[in-house]
């Protein structure tokens, strides 16, 4: 694996990660995102429909929380989770938890970490964890870590220190076990930076983790409400400053467009793509513009559109769904609203996705109102494609030194 | 015209059915329906897309599976989103962006089976909407009006349908009423050139009533006939006898639609407990593919004059031994000259 930076502008890293995968010929662009999956499949989408989306990232994210309980089946299968889930061509990153469903706190010990699957809790010591990774054979995997320093409202220094100590211990144990496993020679361990909100501990975590032979770094504990990320951005800059340039930096729990940009400016390379999934679950379509250099006519049309939508969002609508109690953002429209009943426009004018090329807002509205499964399929296709398009726009903006314009555009649309 | 017109029959309904092959032993036929949205090879299984969607399957997937006709439910669509909106969206084809054929039912069956407060009179079916509590009357005229707005290639008459397990004078009443309602539907139909109205043979499990219904309805020159009032809990033995009686008396040059068989409710959604609906969609695609492939294989066997052998092979695979085949199936096949084992 080789990370080459094309340029660094105001802390933003533009580049490519090369020589990835079992055959060593795959490439990933940074800044970029990973394809979000649930139990090894893009939500709502069969492979056929997934392949109709343009710009699907080269690497997909799997979660241990959804796969750990199937460990025995996977071990018997022998050929790795990529083939099992029908994605043998995809690069795979295995995270501990699912960013959408946070797990209950209080289950990390000095010797084990627990994840929650549909069948209940799965407790993992370092050796069990590595045995599971042996069965999965991902390209990258998040090391076993203690991410609970930021779970409580108040983060104590003691708890922050413990999260760093434990995570380093887990890391050293896992690295040792990796040495002894032939199968896992081709998988890369991602070291996890912990430390809660305590600067001293964060720096210690970064420096110590960087000393180990990890393939990259996961910045854990920066997720939360939009307000909490704001206060942690300072910490984030300090942390990434301690990390080596030539290894990728992932962040978990951050997926909204404005937050993504903030993190890129502070040296983060890779993000999870669960935000489009959350929007889908609340019956919403991503409509925010990332066209930072539109033609004058389009600007007028878009402005008229955006004005209407911005006005509407002043009353933030809370949509209760089973998988996310997240509120709707100003980056999306809610297709359940009555005003879309007779709207025969596509979700986003000019969007090349399958949904926008074939269907109307009125149809999606009908599917949502009648609780039809197709709503999820079509919305997911649009939301993923829109989101991947956003990342492409980020890379292009960085290349042409126009990131400030893109940032300003996104900021204008953030409520 | 709804199909290529035969030069001698300008006044009568167009012949939309072209027979390609007939089994010399049984009554099996392979054919081609010529409908406004393209040809459809028969025998054919129609996936049910109740609310303008085939569950989690996209129109493109359905097309890729070879589906050329699917079904929409007038009852559901008439309530949500309603015929006016669908008309604005360029008909049901435009609304769901389906380029091939659509068949809509009359709305009557769902009305009676889904709505607890429905009442049948000579006027039509009176019911209370489950969504806004309003009282509505679904008459033959209104049913055809809604289906005209939906723009489906085949529309069904409103029939007075009773459960196949019902006995007594109600069955006879429903049969005669269905004939009267057929005539009202024919009179109300605004688009015979673009939409093909099918009659529905009733009569329950009573051979005499069914024969009467057949005699009367076949006097009306509609483009096609459906066999209704079955698949409601009757025994398979009674079921096949009514089907056989119906097909023996229906005109050969018109299509026959057996209603209520091979329904999408067979999909066992609730047994899958993954947290990702994609699991269901894989299953649906597989099931539809299976049904469509089966019909296609049946058709090929008829064209290649080996339908009886096909049936024997199929039953052999399904049941292992001919003696394990259920007796109703053995009898039904025997009645058209096909023996097993």
Automatic annotation (TrEMBL), chain A:
Gene Ontology MF terms in the entry: metal ion binding; protein heterodimerization activity; protein homodimerization activity; tRNA binding; tRNA-guanosine(34) queuine transglycosylase activity
Residues in tRNA-guanine(15) transglycosylase-like domain copies: 13-413
Localization in the cell: Cytoplasm; Mitochondrion outer membrane
Superkingdom as given in the UniProt entry: Eukaryota
Biological process annotations from GO: tRNA wobble guanine modification
Cofactor binding: number and manner: Binds 1 zinc ion per subunit.
GO (cellular component) term, any one: tRNA-guanine transglycosylase complex
The keyword Ribonucleoprotein is assigned to this record: no
Residues the entry annotates as binding Zn(2+): 351, 353, 356, 382
Membrane topology: Peripheral membrane protein
Classification via Gene3D superfamilies: Queuine tRNA-ribosyltransferase-like
InterPro entries reported for this sequence: QTRTD1 (IPR028592), Queuine_tRNA-ribosyltrfase (IPR050852), TGT-like_sf (IPR036511), tRNA_ribo_trans-like (IPR002616)
UniProt keyword terms in alphabetical order: Cytoplasm, Membrane, Metal-binding, Mitochondrion, Mitochondrion outer membrane, tRNA processing, Zinc
Family designation: Belongs to the queuine tRNA-ribosyltransferase family. QTRT2 subfamily.
Subunit structure: Heterodimer of a catalytic subunit QTRT1 and an accessory subunit QTRT2.
Role this protein plays: Non-catalytic subunit of the queuine tRNA-ribosyltransferase (TGT) that catalyzes the base-exchange of a guanine (G) residue with queuine (Q) at position 34 (anticodon wobble position) in tRNAs with GU(N) anticodons (tRNA-Asp, -Asn, -His and -Tyr), resulting in the hypermodified nucleoside queuosine (7-(((4,5-cis-dihydroxy-2-cyclopenten-1-yl)amino)methyl)-7-deazaguanosine).
Protein name listed in UniProt: Queuine tRNA-ribosyltransferase accessory subunit 2
Lineage: Eukaryota, Metazoa, Chordata, Craniata, Vertebrata
Gene: QTRT2
Automatic annotation (TrEMBL), chain B:
Primary enzyme class: transferase
Keyword Calcium: no
GO cellular component, one term: cytosol
Ranges where the tRNA-guanine(15) transglycosylase-like domain occurs: 26-263
GO biological process: tRNA modification
NCBIfam families: Q_tRNA_tgt, tgt_general
Record-given protein name: tRNA-guanosine(34) queuine transglycosylase
Organism: Balaenoptera musculus
Gene that this polypeptide is encoded by: QTRT1
């Amino acid at each position: 694996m080789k990370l080459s930076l094309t340029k660094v502008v105001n802390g933003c890293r533009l580049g490519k990660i090369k020589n990835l995968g079992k055959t060593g010929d795959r490439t990933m662009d940074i800044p970029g995102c990973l394809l979000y999956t649930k139990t090894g499949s893009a939500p709502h989408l069969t492979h056929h429909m997934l392949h109709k989306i343009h710009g699907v990232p080269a690497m997909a994210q799997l979660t241990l929380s959804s796969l750990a309980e199937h460990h025995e089946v996977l071990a018997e299968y022998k050929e790795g989770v990529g083939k099992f889930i029908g994605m043998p061509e995809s690069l795979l990153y295995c995270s501990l938890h699912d960013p959408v469903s946070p797990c209950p706190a209080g289950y990390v010990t000095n010797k084990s970490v627990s994840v929650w699957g549909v069948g209940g809790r799965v407790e993992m010591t370092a050796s069990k964890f590595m045995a599971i990774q042996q069965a999965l054979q991902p390209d990258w995997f998040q090391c076993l870590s203690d991410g609970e320093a930021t779970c409580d409202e108040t983060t104590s220094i003691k708890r922050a220190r413990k999260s760093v100590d434990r995570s380093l211990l887990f890391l050293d144990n896992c690295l040792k076990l990796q040495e002894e496993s032939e199968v896992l020679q081709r998988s890369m361990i991602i070291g996890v930076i912990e430390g809660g909100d305590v600067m001293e501990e964060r720096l210690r975590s970064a420096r110590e983790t960087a000393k180990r032979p990890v393939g990259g770094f996961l910045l854990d504990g920066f997720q939360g409400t939009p307000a909490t990320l704001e206060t942690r951005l300072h910490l984030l800059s300090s942390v990434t400053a301690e990390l080596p340039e030539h290894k990728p930096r992932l962040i978990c729990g951050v997926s909204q467009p404005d937050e993504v940009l903030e993190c890129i400016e502070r040296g983060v390379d890779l993000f999870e793509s669960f935000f489009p999934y959350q929007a889908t679950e609340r019956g919403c379509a991503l409509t925010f513009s990332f066209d930072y250099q539109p033609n004058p006519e389009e600007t007028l049309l878009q402005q008229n559109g955006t004005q209407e939508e911005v006005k509407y969002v002043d009353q933030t609508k809370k949509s209760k769904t089973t998988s996310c109690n997240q509120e709707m953002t100003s980056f999306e429209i809610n297709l359940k609203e009555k005003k879309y009943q007779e709207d025969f426009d596509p979700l986003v004018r000019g969007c090349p996705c399958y949904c926008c090329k074939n269907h109307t807002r009125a149809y999606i509205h009908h599917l949502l109102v009648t609780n039809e499964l197709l709503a999820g399929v079509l919305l997911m296709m649009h939301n993923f494609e829109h989101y991947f398009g956003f990342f492409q726009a980020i890379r292009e903006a960085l290349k042409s030194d126009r990131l400030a314009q893109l940032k300003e555009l996104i900021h204008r649309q953030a409520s | 015209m709804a199909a290529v017109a035969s030069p001698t029959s300008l006044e009568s309904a167009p012949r939309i059915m072209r027979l390609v092959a007939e089994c010399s032993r049984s009554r099996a036929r392979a054919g081609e329906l010529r409908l406004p949205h393209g040809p459809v090879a028969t025998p054919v299984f129609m996936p049910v897309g109740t609310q303008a969607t085939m569950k989690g399957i996209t129109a493109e997937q359905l097309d890729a599976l070879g589906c050329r006709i699917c079904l929409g439910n007038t009852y559901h669509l008439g309530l949500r989103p309603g015929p006016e909106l669908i008309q604005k969206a360029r008909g049901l084809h435009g609304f769901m962006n389906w380029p091939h054929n659509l068949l809509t039912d009359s709305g009557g069956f769902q009305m009676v089976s889904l709505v607890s407060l429905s009442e049948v009179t000579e006027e039509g079916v009176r019911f209370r909407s489950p969504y806004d509590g309003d009282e509505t009357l679904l008459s033959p005229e209104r049913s055809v009006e809604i289906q005209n707005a939906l723009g489906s290639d085949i529309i069904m008459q409103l029939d007075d349908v009773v459960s196949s397990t019902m006995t007594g004078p109600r069955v006879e009443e429903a049969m005669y009423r269905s004939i009267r309602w057929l005539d009202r539907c024919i009179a109300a139909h605004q688009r015979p050139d673009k939409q093909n109205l099918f009659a529905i043979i009733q009569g329950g499990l009573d051979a005499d009533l069914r024969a009467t219904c057949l005699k009367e309805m076949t006097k009306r020159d509609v483009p096609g006939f459906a066999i209704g009032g079955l698949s409601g809990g009757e025994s398979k033995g009674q079921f096949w006898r009514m089907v056989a009686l119906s097909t023996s008396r229906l005109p050969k040059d018109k299509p026959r639609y057996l209603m209520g068989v091979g329904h999408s409710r067979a999909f066992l959604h609730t047994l899958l407990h993954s947290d990702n609906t994609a699991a269901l969609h894989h299953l649906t695609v597989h099931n539809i593919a299976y049904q469509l492939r089966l019909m296609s294989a049946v058709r090929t066997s008829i064209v290649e004059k080996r339908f009886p052998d096909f049936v024997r092979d199929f039953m052999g695979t399904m049941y292992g031994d001919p003696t394990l085949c259920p007796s109703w199936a053995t009898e039904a096949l025997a009645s058209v000259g096909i023996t097993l084992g």
